[in-house]
Amino acid sequence: MEHKDPSYHAFLKLGQMLRNATGNSENAIQKSQPLQAELDTALHTAYLQNPWFTRASCLHALAYWGEMLRPELLGPWMDPYPSPSKTPLTVALILAGNIPLVGFHDVLSVLLTGNRALVKCASNDQVLLPYLSRKLEEFDPELRGRISFTDGKLSSFDAVIATGSNNTSRYFEYYFSKKPHIIRKNRHGAAVLTGGESADDLQGLASDVFLYFGMGCRSVSKLFVPEGYDFDPVFEYFYPYRPLIDHQKYANNYDYNKAVYLMSGSRMLDNGFLLLKEDPSYGSPIGTLFYEAYTSGESLKRRLEAAGESIQCVVAGSWLKGAIPFGRAQHPALWDYADGVDTVDFLLKTSAG
């Protein structure tokens, strides 16, 4: 693809800004005090609006996008696609609010394909994305008007990308049935352990479980382990995340789920900040991690294939085809599309008519 769209270079500038602001810059540019103050205000406001969006969580999300918005990544991602149509679409984006900047990839895809984004943020995530959008407009004034935000009813759009729960997806499917659309549902991350994992693997698994309090669709909420698996090494590498229990909302969820399981007589392992419960489901509650034993690699592969629409990603060693390495659940590549649906291809084909 020829990168004629002005947003391409604006995103590169945004990436450099984020690397400078989060300390991941590859050059000697010093942090700008006004920029740092501006960013600090945005982070504080985001936390006041949504206590799950701690400074550490938001900085992790910003640092991730700082790393993604590089020419050596944006270029190879977009190059295989045809040039965008000269007639832009207005694409309505209904975003989730489970982790900071969870809808940024959709905005990036819409703009790089030459279209306009009409964004409806989640009620608890209305700070960081508008802030980054304003920075994009500062980097290139031609982008003004190509990203707009609304709190009300969506109108005057050509296509829609909506993310929600399994329940809201049924409403979305009905309401947007006459428009080209991508409708995303609940999905979860899973991890497969064999007992032969290294210290680095288990350390990576801990971040896959606990980053963003385990609330991302790529967060590992389910473990598959061999029968008779010893969880002591796992708990050892989980221990650095014990301070999560000092977060009031996390502690409330942990205490509530523990009480429910105790009253129902459910068996569980408890390390003081995480409940490990044997359960066939994939989506575990906050403060809980489900697990399930498997008898053979082949039976497990069939189990994972059968649960395809419930799983966003699988973390495992290189022996499992299609799995991602431990510690990379919250670091998807630009072409790791949510629910396996190619957003850029959808947008280009829709705009081409």
The whole-angstrom Rg is 21 Å
Question: Do you know the CATH architecture of the largest domain?
Answer: 3-Layer(aba) Sandwich
The number of E-state strands comes to 11
Query: Gap between N and C termini, in Å?
Result: 18 Å
Features of the shown structure:
about 350 residues; alpha/beta; Aldehyde Dehydrogenase, Chain A, domain 1; Aldehyde Dehydrogenase, Chain A, domain 2; six-stranded mixed beta sheet; five-stranded parallel beta sheet; 11 strands; about 15% strand; globular
Walkthrough of the structure:
With 353 residues, the protein is of the alpha/beta class. It folds into two domains: 181 residues, Aldehyde Dehydrogenase, Chain A, domain 1; 128 residues, Aldehyde Dehydrogenase, Chain A, domain 2, CATH 3.40.309. The model has no long low-confidence stretch (mean pLDDT 93). Helix 5 links the parallel strand 1 and strand 2. It has a six-stranded mixed β-sheet, sandwiched between helices. The chain has a five-stranded parallel β-sheet with strand order 3-2-1-4-5, with helices on both faces. It is 40% helix and 15% strand. It contains twelve helices and eleven strands.
